[in-house]
Design a protein that fits this description.
Distance between the termini: 49 Å
Oligomer: single chain
Number of helices: 13
Radius of gyration: 23 Å
Number of domains: 3
Strand content: 25-35%
Shape: globular
Order of helices and strands: EHEEEEEEHHHEHHEEHEEEHEHEEHHHH
CATH architecture of the largest domain: 2-Layer Sandwich
Structural class: alpha+beta
């Protein structure tokens, strides 16, 4: 019997288009002998759709909701049910519902806010539906660069100096933010929206004038901004991990190739230069990363440790920074749902994209089974006491 796999992509995020590529890649890679795949598209407005048209990437260039089916997600007995969206709003929560499909396990292929940040994961947790990504905590922390770095630092992982600011502080106390950034970080520095990926909204500042411009850009994307020390002689190495609980597997490493000696791989380099719809899999890179064996061992060790400390599951990618001048390794960030699911890092170690999907689904069911072993009820007489109107009810209310 086949597993009904729902691949969710799109959503209300600046990384909407990148998510479409990852979602269609994952749906294509899933073994048709094992899965009945339903492509589930969340529009920029937050509406959910299914339909055959969603398998064609060109359809999204001029998305037409009339050619697909608007659905309403509902959880029931550990399944994600997709109901035909009622045209009569009075029947939205009434009877006569039409179930279009029942999903056994969800593969989130979402990047950025409203999908990779724990919001979708929280919904699926409430519905008690298995899913392949990290949980609410790991997803939320992995999305917020400020909180992520604080966790990394608390765990003793090597991180670059940084500080942070809020949009309101920048608007009302600009001089204070500038003074703090210059004192704690110093130039050059990178200014990053806390909750965005794909290098969107990130700028390098080499002086005060550049810092002001970078902050103005960053606060337009997010209300919280990370300000991080820039490395002049930089190499970037990425590594992926997957698994659940104590079972953590680590991929091969990669070194992305920069064009024009850039210090930052921006959005255009990651996704537009000669990609042809390949997403992160089309980026120019060297696999394995051309660094020393000792450095590779250190990166793989830290990758597994970060995965465990953040209670991750599914597939993640962790990005490292090497300061060539100081010969130091720093932990950059974790990508909870990496572009193209980082399948290109697993193929060199003998794991095909199809097998990667299988492993993610298997880990999702392990996590779901493990969660359902926990006790979710506690017997008490509080409600009985309230109904009886006794003194015990009043006491219970006071304690509450």
């Amino acid at each position: 019997m086949k597993t009904n796999l729902g691949v969710i992509f799109g959503s209300r995020t600046c990384e909407h288009d990148v998510s479409i590529i990852t979602g269609l890649q994952a749906a294509m890679a899933a073994d048709p002998a094992q899965y009945d795949v339903t492509r589930i598209y969340i529009s920029r407005e937050g509406d959910w759709y299914i339909g055959e048209k969603l398998s064609d990437m060109t359809f999204f260039l001029n998305f037409d909701p009339a050619q697909v089916t608007h659905v309403l997600p509902v959880g029931e007995k550990g399944k994600l049910l997709l109901l035909k969206y009622p045209t009569d709003k009075k029947r939205l929560f009434g009877g006569g519902r039409t179930v279009l499909c029942s999903i056994d396990v969800v593969l989130p292929a979402l990047h950025g806010l409203n999908g990779e940040d724990g919001t979708l994961q929280g919904m699926l947790e409430l519905m008690n539906v298995p899913y392949t990504s990290s949980g609410v905590m790991g997803s939320a922390v992995g999305m917020d660069k400020i909180t992520m770095k604080q966790l990394f630092r608390g765990c003793g992982f090597p991180t670059l100096p940084d500080t942070w600011a809020e949009r309101a502080e920048w608007e009302n106390s600009r001089d204070a933010v500038i003074a703090r950034a210059e004192a704690r970080v110093g130039y050059p520095m990178f200014v990053k929206p806390a909750n965005l990926g794909s290098s969107i909204g990130i700028s390098r500042a080499d002086d005060r004038e550049g810092f002001v411009r970078a902050m103005d850009v960053a606060v337009s994307y997010d209300r919280r901004v990370l300000i991080e020390k820039g490395v002049t002689e930089i190499e970037e190495v990425n590594c992926s991990a997957m698994g659940y609980a104590g079972d953590v597997r680590v991929s091969e490493t990669e070194m992305p190739i920069r064009w024009d000696d850039k210090e930052l791989l921006d959005f255009s380099e990651k996704y537009l230069r000669g990609q042809g719809g390949k997403g992160m899999s089309g980026l120019n890179r060297r696999i394995p990363a051309p660094v020393s064996d000792d450095r590779i061992k250190e990166i793989k060790r830290l990758t597994a440790e970060v995965f465990r400390e953040m209670d991750c599951r599914g597939v993640v990618r962790i990005d490292f920074i090497i300061d060539k001048a100081a010969d130091k390794l720093y932990l950059g960030e974790i990508n909870i749902i990496p572009g193209s699911l980082a399948f290109y890092l697993w193929e060199p170690v003998g794991v095909s994209f199809k097998q990667l999907i299988d492993a993610m689904v298997s880990d999702a069911f392990k996590a779901w089974t493990d969660k359902n072993r926990s006790v979710f009820s506690y017997d008490s007489n509080i409600l009985s006491a309230v109904r009886s109107g006794t003194k015990a009810a009043k006491t219970a209310g006071e304690k509450k």
